[in-house]
Amino acid sequence: MSEPAQGNAPSNDLGQAAVAVRDVWMTYSSPEGADIRVLEQVNIDVQQGEFICIVGPSGCGKTTLLNIIGGFQAATRGEVLVSCKQVHGPDPRRIFIFQEGSVFPWLTVRENVGFGLSNQARTERERTVQHYIEMVGLSGFEAAYPRELSGGMRQRVEIARALAADPEVIYMDEPFGALDFFTRLKMRTDLLRIWKQHRKTVLFVTHEIDEAIQLADRVVVLSRRPATVQLVVAVDLPRPRDPDSAEYLQMRLRILDAIGVSLRTGLVSEDAAG
Ligand SMILES: Nc1ncnc2c1ncn2[C@@H]1O[C@H](COP(=O)(O)OP(=O)(O)OP(=O)(O)O)[C@@H](O)[C@H]1O
Ligand SMILES: [Mg+2]
Q1: 2-93+167-272 — its CATH code?
Q2: Which among 49, 50, 96, 163 has the fewest CB atoms less than 10 Å away?
Q3: Span 77-95, average pLDDT
Q4: What is d(CA 251, CA 264) in angstroms, rounded to the nearest whole number?
Q5: Domain spans of the chain?
Q6: Which atom of ligand 1 is nearest to the CA of 205?
Q7: Rounded to two decimals, what is the model's pTM?
Q8: Is 140 helix (H, G, I), strand (E, B) or coil?
Q9: Sign of dihedral through CA atoms 181, 183, 184, 186?
Q10: What is the pLDDT of residues 238-261, one digit of tens each?
Q11: Which of 25, 26, 38 is the pocket-test mutation for ligand 1 (most atoms within 8 Å of CB)?
Q12: What kind and span of H or E run contains 124?
């Protein structure tokens, strides 16, 4: 059910991983010139089509790690390989979905979803755009602007835009963080349905342990800063997952324990303070 932390042990299986994080370290400098050690010795292997969730205490370095994996910032040390090629910068084959949302407010739903498809012929582009708009349940809103949509609908536009670009990997940094509880539940279900159809490789950062257990094939648990991989939990339960099942509850406790949170006392241990 769960594996020991793989954080300090890079796999030798270099050919298999869709995304391989190899011995990544990251240190920032504070304005006073002091070192802020954020990531140390992070190793993660993600298989093709796998849904990985990354959880960890607030401020431990999740966004930093995702930015490094996505090529938006350089690590102090180590490397990231996507399909066995070293990542040197962002790439349209890898799409990011941010918590704040990044749909273009001046473009309609249709234009947002078609944004990355300028290389396609017009009729093909229109067909692709319509297909993904329908898939995320936004038919009828093609001509709407983001300001005319709810938060959940805007995140659907993001997901449609990401899928329409047919990326190899989708990175999601707390994409549902700004949504209310019920919309979040619905978005999880929708995301899983879409992921099952497309089997894209997904790296999904979340604060919510239940969200991670509901979505992931494997949950990667980061320690407090400087973060390393503390635990990797393979969630080998059929979806949709029953949050009352013994296996589910046991996984939840293991993850909370690794992060240093006690459900009984509500206390965050010293070790978990980000
Ligand atoms: N550009 C930067 N310069 C200096 N320090 C930074 C920079 N970006 C992040 N940090 C620091 O690195 C640490 C990790 O930040 P990061 O945003 O990666 O954490 P996180 O796990 O995503 O947090 P949260 O759970 O709040 O989203 C924090 O202490 C933050 O202050
Ligand atoms: Mg973050």
Answers
A1: 3.40.50.300
A2: 49
A3: 92
A4: 16
A5: 2-93+167-272
A6: 22
A7: 0.88
A8: coil
A9: positive
A10: 999 999 999 999 999 999 999 887
A11: 38
A12: helix 122-135
